[in-house]
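tmp note - Xaa-Pro aminopeptidase
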Amino acid sequence: MAMTFHERDFMEGTLGTQAVDWEGRIDTQRLREERKQRALERLQETDLGAMLLLSDPNIRYVTGLAMTGGSGADHYTLLTEEGDVVHWDTADHTSNQRANCPWLQDIRYACPGLGNVPRASGSDSARRFLISTMVETVTTAMDEYGVADEKLGLDVGNSGLVSGFEGAGVEVDVSTCNAVMEDARKIKTEDEIECLRMVAAICEAGFQKITETAKPGMRENEVWGEAVGELWRHGAFVGGGYLTSGPNTWPKHQANTTDRMIRPGDLVYADMYNIGYLGYRSCYYRTFAMGEPTQAQQDAYETARDNLYDVLERIEPGATTDEIAQGFPDMDGEHADFYDADDHWQMTTNHWAHGLGLQLYEVPLIWRGLSPDHPIEIEEGMTMAVETQEPADRQGVRVEEMVVVRENGVEILSQWPVEEITTIDY
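out:
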């Protein structure tokens, strides 16, 4: 493949995972400050006086807190047009955050008005109490910070919550809030990019563990378990991912990793998706052959790899997603006859590129199912994963790269060899 992509400078690349005083690494204070500033600047361009964030990635983007789920709306954050931040959380989390997060000055106890708590209550009156109390916690803070008479942005369109605020005399705007956060998050800062580079390196440690572990007679879940242990060892958050083999590789198995035994001649692929480092999520496929791959397997891999790199060559600032999507296979290349499919929108997850950040899917999305009729422009600093697949003798290969858009094209953050299928000798 004679292709030209962005090349890193001398000594530029993944550094160590520990904190040191002798080298500039990921600067977590700068990471927090720059993210909050991006959100604040975009908020100030609107007519909103404040935003209430309930989406975990949005909360983490503004606060730096490790949002890992919960019982539903038991944490939420207010960002005002003056840059003030109020965060509400569970009792234990609040106590911990007050002790360990000095960059946040106002942390309060949350009332879970949405999600599991009201659902489990079994009582309409309880649900009304929870919503009204949650609204009261926010409106009280809005009054204290001088934005009680301003329009409030919400990043979720829950009708009960919207009605609750409107009943309290607060004008609510969901679409503007979501547009603010989408615009802030789509271009990554230097430290965000380094987090994605780091998680790619951690995924490669997982791939290496697979090459050392997988052999005939091992079950898919045993091999994946070894890989997951390696990911955790490097400080990753493992929120997804899987490994499949043989006939489970094409079409993808509904249960992802199973207890199937790996056999000689099998293709094996691992999808390191939703592996997190400081919250930043991976999506990174590689394919392995148990023994020397057959010619059909090699041919399929070459097709999938070439399709992938055709798309990568098209990605640059100013390019539009409809143009780039033409690098992905047409309906024949999608093997639509096998799926009995008529339109690209029916081929979700087979061939596309999607943004990466604090969520697995962020802006942009490049896909023949949407991009031709709904294009957006690619911008420098966007980060994404690009993935392709191809069947091979009742099995299949998949390959994926993690990239960042640079001035002169993409920089490939993933570094596991891609020219050929990785062969596992046993």
